[in-house]
Design a protein that fits this description.
By secondary structure, the chain is mainly alpha-helical. The protein has four helices and two strands, in the order ααααββ. It has a two-stranded antiparallel ribbon with strand order 1-2. A hairpin with a 2-residue loop joins strand 1 and strand 2.
């Protein structure tokens, strides 16, 4: 009777060992597959957010239509804003803010462009 109990335990343990062997093989295949996948790299940074003021929308429309870098004076002219020192300075500050956020690029001091994708 004891021999039959031991044989039954051996049968159960053999079945468990076979099941664990299949699970181990599945893990090995999964690991191999995961290691073969290309590295996704770092996530892309979120797109810079345009300030809410309507003047920024107008400025961006000017740069999207332009095919060359612009100075604040040219942006004022394109927006039909009076070309006065005060308005030029206000537009320049907005251009610098957009460049600081990565929405525009300042290619040289006072000259801004819209980076094309």
């Amino acid at each position: 009777m004891q021999a039959e109990t031991v044989r039954e335990q051996i049968t159960q343990l053999t079945a468990q060992l076979d099941e664990l062997g299949r699970a181990t093989e599945g893990v090995r295949i999964t690991r191999k597959t995961l290691l073969a996948l290309p590295d996704p790299g770092p996530p892309a940074p979120p797109a810079p957010k345009l300030p809410d003021h309507p003047a920024y929308q107008q400025i961006m429309a000017v740069f999207i239509a332009a095919d060359h870098p612009l100075r604040a004076r040219h942006v004022c002219e394109a927006m039909d804003v009076a070309v006065t020192p005060n308005s030029i300075n206000n537009v320049r500050l907005k251009l610098e803010r957009l460049a600081g956020r990565g929405i525009l690029a300042e290619t040289e001091p006072g000259v801004f462009t819209h980076p094309r994708p």
